[in-house]
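re: ur question from earlier - yeah i can do the single chain one, its not a big deal. heres the input i used so u can compare w yours
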Amino acid sequence: MSNQIAFLGTGSMNGAIMGGLLAGGFPKTDIVATVRRRESATEIAERYGVTVMAWEEESDSNAQAARGASVVVIGVKPVGVAAVAREIAPVLEPGALVVSVAAAVPIAQLESELPQGQPVIRTMPNTPARLGKGVVALSGGTHATREHIATIMELFKGLGIVAEVPEEQMEAVGALSGSGPAYVFYLAEAMAKAGEALGLDPKLSLRLARETVVGAGMMLAEPGADPVALRRAVTSPNGTTEQAIRVFDERGLPAVIADGAKAASERSRQITRELDAARKLD
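and the output i got, formated as tokens:
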């Protein structure tokens, strides 16, 4: 078995992981990827310098990519994970490690589509991984050893923080760090609109909001940084910031964020049930 890594489905998440690995020095020659369309294959091959195959040109491209690979990363949409697993099952090496980055697909569902004893690891990365500033949570399957876990933690270390969690906590992780970047982008969008409503030029307001979020994030990234302490440091008594925070509290912003995360977590569980029901009908 080679050191090759196969990325099956190279959308935003698998693309972020692959980009992070390459930025960390992983050999381009040891990576093969698949995508749905030929145009995407050409674009990814030119951007990353790796071998890319398109499903529309070669219907067995996923199986070709997985054949002989030591690690296979499945990055298609949750509804397509079972089909991809069935497609590659006949060609997998017995010790090949199958890694899922799809939300809401439990380890048991994936294992049921693969050969008995195939090691599986479920992960939940987020898109800042392509900048080396991501968060990756992972859970080992029935046949995943400590060595398998260590292998993926080593491979993913260039992506940012890598943490092992029990699988039952994956929905919570997804609601926090998986969806979290969108929350931050949503905040920046809202700040830009607020500045525009106060009379700022739209382009300037967007720039100010964007750079403020970036700068605050860098402060949070400093060793030992505490968001509560940082917030208090810029919230002078009876000052302008205090008035803004007061309104946020009165309108229930913390509860809104908590409810949003809860809704994301519940939707993940719902998708899991839907996928399980569809699989049983196949």
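The radius of gyration is 21 Å. not sure if urs matches, ping me
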